[in-house]
Design a protein that fits this description.
The complex is a heterodimer of chains A (about 270) and B (about 290). With about 270 residues, chain A is α/β, with parallel strands linked by helices. Chain A has helices spanning about 1-5, 55-65, 105-110, 115, 125-135, 155-165, 185-200, 210-215, 235, 240-245; strands at about 20-30, 30-40, 45-50, 70-75, 90, 170-175, 200-205, 220-225, 225-230, 250-255, 260-265. The radius of gyration of chain A is 19 Å and the shape is globular. Chain B has about 290 residues and is mainly α. Chain B has one domain (about 1-289): ABC transporter involved in vitamin B12 uptake, BtuC. Classes of the chains: A alpha/beta (about 270), B mainly alpha (about 290).
Chain lengths: ~270, ~290
């Protein structure tokens, strides 16, 4: 019963949207990774970020998380800049994690709480209880004592969501969480995302899967350095927009009720 | 039984052996604990470079003080810190890749050190002491210094254990938790530098990286918990030091080399026989399947 109040997000500046991005630009060695990106998200929303490799999805997430400084423009989290917030969780791509690291599932989730535990202090009994509750939310409590390398792909992903919960994140940025998972594992993730919505957590998910993006998210963002489109899937995934975002990488075939998109957009080699 | 006892106690009648044993235990523990984070963060090459790069510092200290050893510690430490910061800056500010930057600075500093030492007449002997250590020449004063500095290094790691763990496992998480990541990173480099400088006399710069990396890598193969890995690494580091020193006493080989060889032997044993992960286990599993 304490699970429900423990995981309730705290209040920020009243009336401000959870995320507001204005005229954001990022350049690496003169090359533009993001250009003039502006949008806002309301609390509890679930947004899919879609675009080809190198479209700037990871870059956008890192700037929002405050890991990367933008070249121009600004990000506001609940009315303030991201630097002071510990309520933003970045869920990394599974391929970028060292799964042989000697840590158990519970200890890895506990890392999310370190910002609240504070410097020079050790986690208390309550912190461990909190971690346990987070693992229960994602259905991973029985695996708490496992070494992280022993998990399946879907379990690894849910462990990171539990870590974001332990961080008491209100904005979760998930980089390709669905890539490489089979359908049942993807369904597990979507069930967890449903729970997050009920708690008012805002979620941004980078994905290559146009169909999942169209079917399972409130709004979709089409990105290719610039914001090609943002809104309901029907409005955004138009022929012109997809062509603009993907160019030759995507083949569009006219089908009975709309356009069928055949993607050549595998997930390897995403660098920005 | 009494023969074994005699074998173990006989070297202890010499004060230099007593001091040497205390030194290798201290150095083994400190290097292995710091080294655990070096291994987990994939900084082995950086550790090796830092060890070699202290040579010019040591050489200048040696020349300035006319062969007096007391001040070498500070000169070595200064060189290590300058190198650590220099590598960090070159890797960040320019388009030169980090490991290339390490390679350039490492070899350049090492060459400078050799050049400086070679300007002295008793060059061969002194150089070999710096390169390969001289554990039997450790003085009581050296032991105190090693104990104090090494103890402080361990205390800092104990105090910031959680933070160093996050930084090693997921640097991006460290940033989103608003931990002082850059500061922690450079602090870890300074701790590595301190561990290297206090170990200088025991194993020398050429073999230093083995003390940092090998016991930690061995422990990594034997456990799946970080706290146990660090404790085990410390144990292996200390034990390797003691066994190596006895070995060098009886077989009369260079002590630094003997210590590193024992470390390596432990690693090979773990590689072959570690439960579940060892090569022998894997072969068995294949046969059973």
């Amino acid at each position: 019963m304490w699970k429900s109040w423990l995981l309730r997000p705290e209040v920020h500046e009243a009336g401000a949207p959870i995320l507001e991005v204005s005229h954001l630009a990022v350049r690496y060695n003169g090359r533009a990774a993001l250009e003039d990106v502006s949008f806002r998200l309301d609390a509890g929303e679930r947004l899919a970020v879609v675009g080809p490799n190198g479209a700037g999805k990871s870059t956008l997430f890192k700037v929002i998380a405050g890991v990367l400084a933008p070249t121009a423009g600004e990000v506001q989290i609940a009315g303030r800049c991201p630097g002071g917030h510990i309520c933003i969780a970045y869920v990394p791509q599974r391929t970028q994690v060292d799964w042989s690291f000697p840590v158990t599932v519970a200890a890895a989730v506990m890392m999310g709480r370190y910002g609240r535990v504070g410097l020079l202090r050790r986690p208390t009994r309550q912190d461990w209880d909190y971690v346990r509750a987070c693992l229960e939310v994602v259905g991973m409590a029985p695996l708490a004592g496992r070494q992280i390398g022993e998990l399946s792909g879907g379990q690894q992903q849910r462990m990171f969501i539990a870590r974001a919960l332990a961080q008491e994140a209100e904005l979760m940025l998930m980089d390709e969480p669905l890539t490489g998972l089979d359908v049942p594992a993807q369904e597990d993730i979507f069930r967890v995302l449903e729970t997050l919505r009920a708690r008012g957590v805002t979620v941004m998910v980078a994905t290559h899967d146009l169909q999942l993006a169209a079917e399972r998210f409130d709004r979709v963002m089409l990105l290719r350095q610039r914001l090609v489109g943002l809104g309901l899937p029907d409005e955004v995934f138009t022929r012109e927009n997809l062509q603009q975002a993907y160019g030759g990488q995507l083949h569009l075939i006219q089908a009975e009720n709309g356009w069928l998109a055949l993607g050549d957009t595998c997930c390897t080699g995403e660098s920005a | 039984m009494s023969a074994v006892w005699l074998l173990l106690t006989e070297p202890l009648q010499y004060a230099f052996m007593q001091r040497g044993l205390v030194a290798v235990v201290l150095v083994g523990v400190v290097c292995a604990v710091v080294g655990s984070f070096v291994v987990l963060r994939g900084m082995a090459f950086l550790g090796d470079a830092l060890a070699h790069a202290i040579l010019p510092g040591v050489a200048i200290g040696y020349l300035v003080n006319g062969g007096e050893r007391g001040a070498l510690f500070w000169w070595g430490l200064g060189a290590a810190v300058v190198t650590a910061l220099g590598i960090g800056a070159i890797g960040k500010r320019t388009e030169v890749k980090a490991d290339t930057a390490i390679g350039i600075i490492f070899a350049g500093m090492f060459a400078l050190g050799i050049a400086l030492i070679s300007s002295v007449r008793s060059y061969a002997v002194d150089l070999s002491h710096f390169l390969f250590g001289d554990v039997l020449g450790v003085s009581v004063h050296d032991l105190w210094l090693t104990g104090m500095v090494g103890g402080s290094v361990l205390l800092v790691i104990l105090a910031l254990y959680k933070e160093f763990t996050v930084l090693s496992f997921d640097p991006v998480l460290a940033v989103t938790l608003r931990l002082p990541s850059t500061l922690l990173h450079y602090l870890l480099l300074v701790l590595v530098a301190l561990a290297i400088v206090v170990s200088l006399q025991t194993v020398g710069v050429a073999l230093m990286v083995a003390m940092l990396v090998t016991p930690a890598a061995t422990a990594f193969l034997l456990t799946r918990r970080l706290s146990r890995m660090i404790a085990l690494a410390a144990l292996i580091g200390a034990l390797s030091g003691v066994i190596g020193l006895y070995f060098s006493y009886y077989v009369s080989v260079a002590s630094g080399a003997a210590i590193v060889l024992v470390c390596t032997l432990f690693f090979v044993l773990a590689l072959l026989f570690a439960p579940q992960r060892g090569l022998v286990w894997r072969k068995k599993a294949v046969r059973a399947a």
